[in-house]
């Protein structure tokens, strides 16, 4: 009622580069859909990350043409018919897009996302999933454990930060008390902001465990994020 509906669709597209391409599409329909565009995520083992992003961009372009009418079925038919063209165009404009991406990245700057998770029942699988998402979306930062506190701090392009958040909220990343796969419902977005000049850029994504609050605080201080720590972490201990 408050978050809308999320569903996955898998389609196989024939005769593309002499092979079948399996597209995994995730649609999140907000409560005011179809007056508002859906969030779309695209994955495929046969396509590169950049190609998946191009497919997503083209789908969103098409979606705008259908407002305010229901559009998901039309979008699926469209990509089945036009995927070959989208991929070919993607290769043609690769250099231009890279240059544009660099300019856009410079204009938008690097963004930071700070999350608090309530728990992880299937910790090993959950951690591996977060690491894969961070790698796929070229995000750096930390997954931090300190006692019962679980924090995720990410840095990267704003569009990739937003896509990570969609994945985090809509994918079955954990298990419930009966051992069934479930979505992450106990997540808090503590902060989403542009990285400032005083903030240190993380070069990698790492999973780290801290035995004391002082150790955790030093991690934030080293990254120039003392204010972020002071504002959000101590209240989690209460």
Describe the structure.
The chain has 238 residues and is α+β, with helices and mostly antiparallel strands. The chain folds into two domains: 87 residues, Roll (Ubiquitin Conjugating Enzyme); 127 residues, 2-Layer Sandwich (Alpha-Beta Plaits). It has seven helices and ten strands. Strands 9-4-6-5-10 form a five-stranded mixed beta sheet. It starts with a strand and ends in a 6-residue tail after the last helix.
Q: Using the coordinates shown, work out and report the CATH topology of the largest domain.
A: Alpha-Beta Plaits
User: Roughly what percent helix?
Assistant: 40-55%
Structural class: alpha+beta
What share of the residues does DSSP label as strand, in percent?
25-35%
Mean pLDDT across every amino acid position: 84
